[in-house]
Amino acid sequence: MGKTVTVGRALLSVFDKSGMADFARGLSEAGVELVSTGGTHKLIAETGLPVREISDLTGFPEMMDGRVKTLHPKVHGGLLSVRDNPEHKASMDEHEIGPIDLVAVNLYPFEKTVASGASYDEIIENIDIGGPAMVRSAAKNHAYVTVVVDPADYPAVIEAIRNGGIPYELRQKLAAKAYARTAAYDSAISSWFAKEIDFADVNYRSFAGTLREVMRYGENPHQWAAFYGTGENRPGVATASQVQGKTLSYNNINDTEAAFELVSEFDPKETAAVAIIKHANPCGVATASNLTEAYKKALRTDPVSAFGGIVATNREIDAETATEIVKVFTEVIVAPSATKEAQDIIAAKKNLRLLLTGGLADPKAEGLQVKSVAGGLLVQSRDNRNVDDCELKVVTKRAPTEAELADLKLAAKVAKHVKSNAIIYVKDGATAGIGAGQMSRVDSARVAHRKSIDAAEAAGIEGALTVGSVVASDAFFPFADGLEALVAAGATAVIQPGGSMRDDEVIAAADAAGIAMVMTGMRHFRH
Asked: For 37-91, what is each residue's pLDDT tens digit?
């Protein structure tokens, strides 16, 4: 095991100067010699503490607009020397290199610069070189050197120094944290570069995030889990403000993201929309002139599954809508905003989480999705297209009516967010039955129909909600039996991608049943 080490000299060079004045004061009071650069040196000097400029240490001035100031043997030799190695000590003596026992560095704000919409040249200028080099040198030599990249660690380091030195275990942890930071930094740079020059199939891919929260467990109690933010500004769970309620669980975040992505498909200027999600699948989606009506229509689809679900809206939640939502046990509500009256109503349910995003997610935004497999990563572009981007083709003798077409488009938007095989029945602007995740498309059609019978009974309606509905399928019908199941459930029109070897057979079955069929040419599998 490594030893506890004392700190004689510290090099301080930070962009984020939070807590730096107090940290420098604590080091100085402990007898540590301070060396610093640029703005950090100015900050420390203004406190009245003794501090050397980096140029005094290296014998060279900062040059090239600050690009070259710490890339020097007297810096990296002082960081990388193995203190009890006679050859290293001889080299230090020969070249007058003094040891540097602690480095506090945080990096140019590359990620924030990209997020600000800065120009290409400005982004390039915010790629830190000297900082990561010092961090990596210090982290490699953590047997002797302490590296600090997070201001949150300043107090623990000062306390350790006051108690006689910095333990090896703490130096190990700080070194691991340092490498994680430089890895995330380089990942952000490489990802931006690949996107900027349209180099999607770049040979090496890395993805990084910043720890937001360690959770009690993952999908199940025996699984470890944590939530990391990527810094992407697109509205969603990661950017939302949690107004109230318990801490979000792993499953809460997964389901809430699914709900919010779905409801973001609907322009709030055109219609109010509500999605109710359970286990990442919608159990009810509806549009209407106001949120209250949309919520009631969405709830009617499957009031049993809605218990303990997630509710997402595309408009500001008002008091009337909040009153309706809290009548049913709900885990999370996510919306762009909520009135003060609505927040007060929701506050009565202390464990109910309320997330406000400040806006909707852009369903057309580009981005990458990542899934791990044994020994690798599957990476794909975000599914950022929907039925509005399609050239619809009527393939049956009967064309859909205007009302049917509106419901078909709604069904298609919902189908995009349902686990395959997805079958979505819609009637009068609301889902009437949802079949998700079945191994057979026929099974999805039948499951959705069966549930619609139960929902109709709960609503005091005779028969099934699917009678007179339209249907969306996320992929083509391989055989006519899937279509026949929809007809048996009472469907009058169908929208599907097409592309099956038996499209002609399926179209003939639709014509025989007298229903309309529209093809989009766009599949939306979701696994």
From this structure: 888 999 999 999 999 988 777 766 666 666 666 667 778 788 878 888 888 888 8
Q: Are 486 and 364 in contact (CB under 8 A)?
A: no
Torsion angles phi and psi, residue 319, rounded to 5 = -60, -40
Alpha-carbon gap, residue 160 to 156, rounded angstroms: 6
Reply yes or no on whether 279 is catalytic.
yes
Active site residue 140: yes
Q: How many helices (H) and strands (E) does the chain have?
A: 18, 21
Rounded to an integer, what distance in angstroms lies between the CA atom of residue 174 and that of residue 135? 10
Closest CA to 281 of 305, 299, 248, 297: 305
Cα(16)–Cα(214) distance, rounded to whole angstroms?
Answer: 24
- Burial of residue 99 (CB within 10 Å: 0-12, 13-18, 19+) is middle
Q: How large is the average pLDDT for residues 12-16? A: 92
CA-based radius of gyration for the chain: 30
In 3D space, the residue among 154, 125, 141 whose CA is nearest the CA of residue 65 turns out to be 125
Residue 100, number of CB atoms within 10 A of its CB: 29
Of the listed 140, 173, 195, 296, which one is catalytic? 140
User: For residues 173 and 90, what is the distance between their CA atoms, to the nearest angstrom?
Assistant: 30
| E strands in 270-411 | 272-278, 281-288, 309-313, 330-335, 353-356, 368-373, 376-381, 393-394
Angstrom distance (rounded) from CA 405 to CA 439: 28
What does the block give as tokens for 91? 């080299």
Given 17, 279, 296, 349, the catalytic residue: 279
Nearest to 155 by CA among 174, 128, 141: 174
74: nearest Cα among 35, 23, 28: 35
Omega cis (within 30) before 421: yes
pTM, rounded to two decimals:
0.86
CB-count exposure of residue 372 (10 Å: 0-12, 13-18, 19+): exposed
pLDDT in tens, 395-413: 999 999 999 999 999 999 9
